[in-house]
Write a structure and sequence with these properties.
- By secondary structure, this protein is α/β, with parallel strands linked by helices.
- It folds into four domains: about 90 residues, no CATH class; about 300 residues, Catalase HpII,  Chain A, domain 1, CATH 2.40.180.10; about 90 residues, Hemocyanin, N-terminal domain, CATH 1.20.1370.20; about 140 residues, Class I glutamine amidotransferase (GATase) domain (Rossmann fold), CATH 3.40.50.
- It contains 22 helices and 18 strands.
- Strands 1, 2, 3, 4, 5, 6, 7, 8, 9 and 10 form a ten-stranded antiparallel β-sheet that branches. Strands 15-12-11-16-17-18 form a six-stranded parallel β-sheet, with helices on both faces.
- The protein binds CIS-heme D hydroxychlorin gamma-spirolactone 17R, 18S.
Length: about 725
Amino acid sequence: MTKNSSKTKTQGDKGAASPALDNSLGDIQQGTGQVEFAQEAREQGGETHQHIAANSDHDSAVGHLTDNHGHRISDNQNSLKAGPRGPSLLEDFVLREKIFHFDHERIPERIVHARGSGAHGVFEVTDAIPELTKADIFQEKGATCPVFVRFSTVAGSKGSKDTPRDVRGFAVKFYTQAGNWDLVGNNMAPFFIQDAIKFPDLIHSVKPEADRGYPQAASAHDTFWDFIGLMPESMHMIMWAMSDRALPRSLRMMEGFGVHTFRFVNAEGKGTFVKFHWKPVLGMQSTTWDEAVKISGADPDYHRRDLHEAIEAGDFPAWELGVQTFDDAWAAKQPYDVLDATKLIPEEEIPVRIIGKMTLNRNVDNFFAETEQAAFLPTNLIPGIDFSNDPLLQGRLFSYLDTQKSRLGTTNFHQIPINAPKCPMHNFQRDGAMQTLMPTGRANYEPNSLAQAGEDGGPRECPETGFASFAEMGERTDTTAKVRARGELFADHFSQARMFYLSQTENEQAHIASAIVFELSKVSLPHVRNRVVAQIRNIDEDLAKRIATGLAIDLPKAEKPARKPVDLGTSDALSIQKNAKDMLKGRKVGILFAEGSDKNAIDNVKSAVESAGGSVMLIASKIGGIKVAGGTLEADGQLAGTPSVVLDAVAIILTEDAAKKLTKDSAAVDFVSDAWAHMKAIGHDDGALALLKHCHVPADADGVSAPDKSFAANAAKRFFAREADVRDLA
Ligand code: HDE
């Protein structure tokens, strides 16, 4: 280590470690030759006392159980007592430390986005954009950078289900050579509110109600809709939140949005507005509401499991990163304000230019250390990217740094390996709780002149390459009054809500209507329900009527809009169904079989599905091994625990006898009935007909076929035309 160095050591700072760790490495070198292992662990931020203790052992490379201070533990089964039946002794430091640590294992969960799943990956530039930004990562085609992503729901607690109707967080940390860049977005393009000052109100209204503590992870309750009805600016986002976008089939099958308008700044200092988009390679797909509700019972971890299993299987989820860029002059001509986070820019107006691809290729090793302790900061920016004056974004810039202190307990949260930059980090900040770095030397202030005495004076500012804020021109002049106000166009609350609704397919519109009917049916205060419908009359008269009919209430008088809506036409990019990719890759097909089933037919379905890129799950009443015609087969899932809601399509291969027997098993009946009601492809052999008939599934319907190649083609789709036959569309 350099004497008198005032450099701070980080995990990305190769060859530098804390003296404590250096000492133990010295021991390791003499003892076991385990340096590489320890060093690797350290570089990955994986060093633990346990590793060090284990590896500094002189006579064994095998880990001995120790306490947190390195003392070997002789008995991890019994506490120290005054005699076998006597009282426990206070001196038992092993017991006390273990229980003490356990007592403090939980940290406060995130106030929002508490439920999340994370993964590591890599970002690669596919189209360099130096003309738009000097951002280090976008300079060269083919350049790569490690990333960590955390997806989340918003309202629920960290133990809540994965499939509520909710917005999903889509937070990406790019570990660039110019420092970390966090793009902390959502899976929906607009947001509920325009100004950060309303965020605590929004979140209080959607969280479990203050007096009764329920409902968990749900917006279907009085306080949320009370707030929404009184906040017409939320109407555009309400259309998104009540649409199928709130019910993703998989985290791998949803779009992501930076939401706010940001700034690119190029080497000449020229600024360009930018909106960020993530486009899933697997295409977008959603579940139906009924499916989502049933999945939450069958598998509350549905999305977390799906992400983990896909990565384990090498089926790496990927997204393209796209940008919409425009200048101030273009922005000034639009009928909406680009600084208003409740608005989007239609892709038909400004196409999304794809500039990169993100692939998630590694699961976390430790959920707590990585996913839970990940701290995203919208203030994590790199030179070449800057904020805009969006008042929602401006408020976020304060909140995230602040919240990490209360959540992670220390201002040194940036030293936690998942948060630490992977480029050098040197400054004069010192000390604080949980300080794990060991800055050395005399200089802990700047300016200093210690270098003149031959000492290391520490790091210096970088006027040329450091972050310099974009010289924003415009409103902030000496003559501008301080006001609590919003831009004029912020007052248009309905034009884009209408554009979104009208851009949906018929089914998708029906889903929005049904979702609002469902949610408002859970509202007990009639005036709250009425006010929401009164607002919706400004979006679309027909939608408002459908909702009023669904609630069996009179159509209330429309609320007066603050600004008259304008006709923005439609945008096909806003519909999931219009952009669906009928592909089996990333999708799961279940094959229900029983004793005597035709193994040949099962094998055929399996190979057809797998060769189209899908995966197969064999399902039977018993998993251990069932005699089928042509051999014995083990099932991957037991029927009662593997309902068809967790599958994308089903094939049913049964003998006639087995089919008849299964008509008396409610799990089998639900399996088939739900697959039909959720508009999934159903493949079947002749033997299965009795079960299909019992479940009122017409064998000649669209999407119902023999278990051959046609089934594999069907399995990639949903048969929305069936919907009118299976539910009463609002
Ligand atoms: Fe957040 N948000 N937010 N938010 N947000 C948090 O930060 C906040 C907003 C988003 O996986 C918190 O570390 C304010 C918009 C994601 O760890 C907190 C406002 C968007 C995540 C916070 C917003 C987001 C958060 C809670 C209004 C989409 C999860 C824990 C001004 C662009 C990140 C934490 C993760 C998390 C504050 C609005 C996305 C409290 C004050 C708009 C994806 O700081």
